[in-house]
Amino acid sequence: TNNDVGCSMVTAFMNAYYNNTGTPVIGIPAASSGTSVYDYWQDGQTGLENAKSKLQSAINWLNEKGYPIKHKYMIWDQGETDIDKIKYTDSNNKEQTYADALRNTVEGVQRAGVERCFMIRIGAIYLYSGYEEKYKDRYYQYLDMINEQDEICEDYWITLVSTSMATLSKCQNMMTDMVHFNQEALDIVGSEAGKNVA
Questions:
Q1: CA-based nearest residue to 23, from 14, 31, 33
Q2: Which residues lie below 8 Å from residue 78, measured CB to CB, with a gap of 6+?
Q3: DSSP state of 73
Q4: What is the pLDDT of residues 54-111, one digit of tens each?
Q5: Cβ atoms within 10 Å of 179's Cβ, excluding its own
Q6: Residue (of 7, 8, 30) closest to 193 by Cα position
Q7: Which of 80, 117, 146, 179 has its CA 20 to 30 A from that of 167?
Q8: By the 8 A CB rule, do 118 and 73 touch?
Q9: Are 178 and 126 in contact (CB under 8 A)?
Q10: Biggest distance spanned by C-alpha atoms of the chain
Q11: Which residues are paired to 89 by β-bridges?
């Protein structure tokens, strides 16, 4: 369960994965809105440690009940909070790119038993009518993050499984504000990602 965000794509992902594989799947939400890969999703930090703890609890429960676990995957949907930091951030006086920080996150969950990481790429900021000039620079920062995530996936250590957010973020009826998607949009993205992972 997850109490930090109002909407979720986990159920849509699980349904699509099951419908395309016939393999039962358990989803463990660990999302936390507005968090950064630099100061929330590294080893020893709240987000990653919470995710690893939830994973281990699920593994222990399934083992106790006699359910065999075939695969353990992580689905990554994050980046909006880090759009200002994608070139570098100051961490212990050391330059660290978004790709390096995300790689550390993935390696952290791999040490916890996760086999592969799949990425749902972010969308761009929605430019409401009348706000285009005010948020134009922000819009291009989102495009920079999208390009960065494409490059990360081309390195083959993360697999891109959904790009729908880029299209949906252009539709006001799919957004709850300029950066967050409503449940209808998340169902679309989760279904696409689940099918592609399958």
A1: 14
A2: 35, 37, 41, 122
A3: E
A4: 999 999 999 999 999 999 999 999 988 888 776 655 554 344 588 889 999 999 999 9
A5: 18
A6: 8
A7: 117
A8: yes
A9: yes
A10: 58
A11: 96
